[in-house]
Amino acid sequence: MSRVLVIDDETVVGTILRYAFEVGRHQTVVADGGRAGIDMARSEHPDAIILDLMMPSVTGYDVLGILRDDEATKRVPILVLTAVTMWRERERCLSEGADMVMTKPFDPRDVAKAVEALLSTERAGSQSG
């Protein structure tokens, strides 16, 4: 069973995604905001992370940078969920270490499929390396 960490300051997003992932047999933990997300990424050892971009105080960009610089979390696949639809922001997310970017509003089933694809890629990479 894979472990998915959702980092979002909107509790409804975490609730929706938790349901979508648990139906797909993934254990899901939810962090309320960036600081909590960083701490949980380090303590919960997730197999994948879903990260909101626009959060107060510690933003998704901050979290992304910290997680990519941390030896314990730098290889964990990260899917960024954002309401920002500009191409430049999408490219920035990818250049700063996101593995995938999806826009809000979203279909939870699509997010679950995307994370499943990231996990499959990660598993294939770890088996060949």
Describe this structure in words.
The protein has 129 residues and is α/β, with parallel strands linked by helices. It contains five helices and five strands. It has helices at 11-23, 34-44, 60-69, 87-95, 108-128, and strands spanning 3-7, 27-31, 48-52, 78-82, 100-103. Strands 2-1-3-4-5 form a five-stranded parallel sheet, sandwiched between helices. Helix 4 links the parallel strand 4 and strand 5. Helix 2 packs parallel to helix 3 (60-69). The model has no long low-confidence stretch (mean pLDDT 89).
In short:
The chain has 129 residues and is of the alpha/beta class. The chain has 5 helices and 5 strands; from the N terminus they run E-H-E-H-E-H-E-H-E-H.
